Amino acid sequence: MTSTSNISIIEDRRRGSFTRSKKAKYKDIQKMEIPKKPRFLCFHGHASNAARLEEQCSNWPDYVLEKMDLVFIDGPFTVEDGLYDWFTMVKNRYT
Rounded to whole angstroms, how far apart are CA atoms 18 and 3? Predict the structure, then answer.
């Protein structure tokens, strides 16, 4: 994120001549924190699990994956051994 005022502050600093107000602005620029990556909660589909979904998402390009923090979780209901679901049927009703 570079604005024209930031560029002039850096150029002035290289020459060794910048004013007190520009010094304060330059220090503020140095203190800027790197923004956190957005975190996404990833839900698998019916009769699947978090590991399988994570494996499928690992095929995405690295330039996409490095910009996100993906969190994978298993559904609360066991369908088969190692496979999960988010809903269950009880007396023909989803719960």
Answer: 17
Q: Confirm if 40 and 71 have CB atoms less than 8 A apart.
A: yes
In 3-state terms, what secondary structure has residue 57? helix
pLDDT average, residue stretch 21-43? 74
What is the distance between the alpha carbons of residues 18 and 7, in angstroms, rounded to a whole number? 12
Tell me how far apart the alpha carbons of residues 79 and 51 are, in angstroms, rounded to a whole number.
Answer: 15
Task: Look up the pTM and report it.
Answer: 0.58
pLDDT band at 90 (very low <50, low <70, confident <90, very high): confident
Average pLDDT over residues 18-41: 69
Q: Across 13-68, where does the E strand assignment appear?
A: 39-43
- CA distances from residue 87 to 37, 48, 73 in whole angstroms, order as listed: 30, 12, 14
According to DSSP, the β-strands at 93-94 and 89-90 are antiparallel
Q: How many whole angstroms separate alpha carbon 69 and alpha carbon 54? A: 12
